[in-house]
Every structure is written in structure tokens, then in C-alpha cells.
Specification:
This protein has 274 residues and is mainly α. It contains 12 helices and 5 strands. Strands 3-5-4 form a 3-stranded mixed β-sheet, sandwiched between helices. Strands 1-2 form a two-stranded antiparallel sheet. The structure holds zinc ion.
């Protein structure tokens, strides 16, 4: 009986919110069904709050957008990528995208749910990333947001922590789910605390590669980016590197997909050359 109840609950939850895919299938072939229990609106709201907080702290330290040329460069590249997100999900073209640069020697970049991008200046100052490489790394991060990997991770953590009873409460209370989650201390810090899984990383690699190609960034740069990261992985590993291991598999997968997206890159370059 208990088992039946659990199955019933799980079925309800899946019907209400569960196994959907957040993005449209495209050349890169990302189409896995995802477990999405928590409402996107709650996740996006929390992320926006956390992002605003980060911005405020950086302003206080005078590390926000300190280098105007660098900011301009990152915004230009990001905007070209953002202009292509409709291919994967039309609703994302209406997101309240924000792009900022924080002066910080770490090699890191992220895009929070709902399109809040932050690039740390170490990517430019230390890694000396080219425009194509920045297109690759920002494209990868945007892909995580388009696939809503943050919401997926938090949904999984929620069920693991609170179990199916809480899930039932969530289903019956609907929109109150966000409040329940916050009450339980599952704020947006989880965005940073829960690393992306291997499959999520693979998806972000694939979709990011396609996104960058469509925006006119050379897909080969995804490989050189990982190689440069690997070369810098001496002593304390770069922050980005610790959550994004540049395994031989990763590079091999990127290389295998590159021929598929290269026509998109060539077409985009022709388009901008006009
Ligand atoms: Zn990633």
C-alpha cells in the first residue's frame, strides 16, 4: 500500500511538472527528459536576488565592471550568443538577460537561471581567452541556463532531502512550493553548492558548441579553451576547472561534434560579413 501510494505520488508529480524537456532538439541533439519539480518562477526569482546581491557586493569592492573595454567585449560576445537562444527555446529571448564582469583572478564564468551572466576577469587577464574562446565558455554557461540545470539540480536535492511526503505537499499546495523551499533553507546558494552532473555537463558542452557556432564563433575554440585550462591546471586548480574537468572524453566529444556545427558557423560568418 505504501509503495502504491509512493508510485501514485510520483506519477502525479511527473504529470504536473516532471519529465519535460526544457529545450527544442537541434543539431547538437540534446533532448533528455528532465525531472523538474520546483517552479521555474521561484528559481528565477531567487537567482535574480542572488545575482543582485553579488552585483552589490562587487560594487562595494569596486570590482564590478572595472575595465570598460573588457565589459564591452564580454557584452558584445554575450549579446551575439543571446540573439541565438530562440533556436533552443523561444521564451528565453524574452528573459531579463544581464551581463557583467567582475574583477577577479579566478578563471570562472556562470549564467544563473533566467539569464544572469557573470564572467570573472581572470578569463581575459590570465587565460587570455580569445573572442572565440569566450564565445565557447559563455555559450556553455548559457546552455546550462537554457536547459535549466539549476532547477533540475534543486528539484533532485529537494526530493532527496524531503522525500515524497514533501513532494505531495508541494503538489497540493502548488505555487506555495517556492515558499516551502525557501523555508527549508534551500535558497539560491544551492545553485553554487550543487555541481552539475556529468550528463548536464555533456549537454552544456553540446548545446554551447552549437550556440557559439550559430553566433559566429569558431567551434574549434571549445577545444583550445579546454587545452588552455588544462595547461593552467597546476598547483591550485582554477575554479572553473574544478567543476568542469577537461577529461580526454570531453575534448573527444567536442571534436566529434564540431563537423556537425561547422556549417552553422560558416553561415553565421557569411551573414555578418554582408
Ligand atoms: Zn558546465
Amino acid at each position: 500500500m505504501k509503495k502504491l501510494y509512493a508510485i501514485l505520488l510520483a506519477t502525479i508529480a511527473l504529470q504536473l511538472s516532471g519529465c519535460a524537456t526544457t529545450t527544442k532538439d537541434s543539431v547538437s541533439g540534446v533532448k533528455r527528459s528532465q525531472f523538474m519539480l520546483l517552479p521555474a518562477a521561484s528559481i528565477d526569482k531567487m537567482s535574480a536576488q542572488a545575482y543582485t546581491q553579488t552585483i552589490k557586493e562587487a560594487e562595494g569592492k569596486k570590482t564590478l565592471n572595472a575595465d570598460k573595454a573588457q565589459l564591452e567585449r564580454v557584452r558584445t560576445i554575450s549579446n551575439r550568443l543571446i540573439a541565438q537562444v530562440g533556436v533552443f527555446r523561444p521564451d528565453a529571448t524574452k528573459w531579463a538577460w544581464e551581463v557583467n564582469v567582475e574583477k577577479n583572478d579566478q578563471l570562472n564564468a556562470y549564467c544563473m537561471p533566467g539569464g544572469k551572466i557573470m564572467v570573472l576577469s581572470g578569463m581575459m587577464d590570465k587565460l587570455k581567452a580569445t573572442d572565440d574562446e569566450l564565445g565557447a565558455v559563455i555559450g556553455h554557461e548559457i546552455a546550462h541556463a537554457l536547459r535549466e540545470h539549476g532547477r533540475e539540480r534543486m528539484s533532485q536535492a529537494y526530493v532527496q532531502q524531503f522525500g515524497l511526503q514533501a513532494l505531495a505537499a508541494f503538489v497540493t499546495k502548488g505555487a506555495a512550493g517556492g515558499a516551502i523551499m525557501q523555508g527549508a533553507g534551500m535558497g539560491s546558494q544551492l545553485f553554487f553548492a550543487l555541481p552539475n552532473g556529468r550528463e548536464q555537463e555533456r549537454e552544456a558542452d553540446k548545446m554551447g558548441l552549437e550556440l557559439a557556432a550559430r553566433a559566429g564563433y569558431n567551434p574549434d575554440a571549445a577545444v583550445t579553451l579546454w587545452e588552455k585550462m588544462s595547461a593552467m591546471n597546476t598547483g591550485a586548480p582554477p575554479e572553473f576547472f574544478s567543476t568542469h574537468p577537461a577529461s580526454a572524453n570531453r575534448i573527444a566529444d567536442l571534436k566529434a561534434l564540431t563537423p556537425k556545427v561547422r556549417p552553422l558557423y560558416e553561415a553565421a560568418k557569411k551573414g555578418t560579413a554582408k
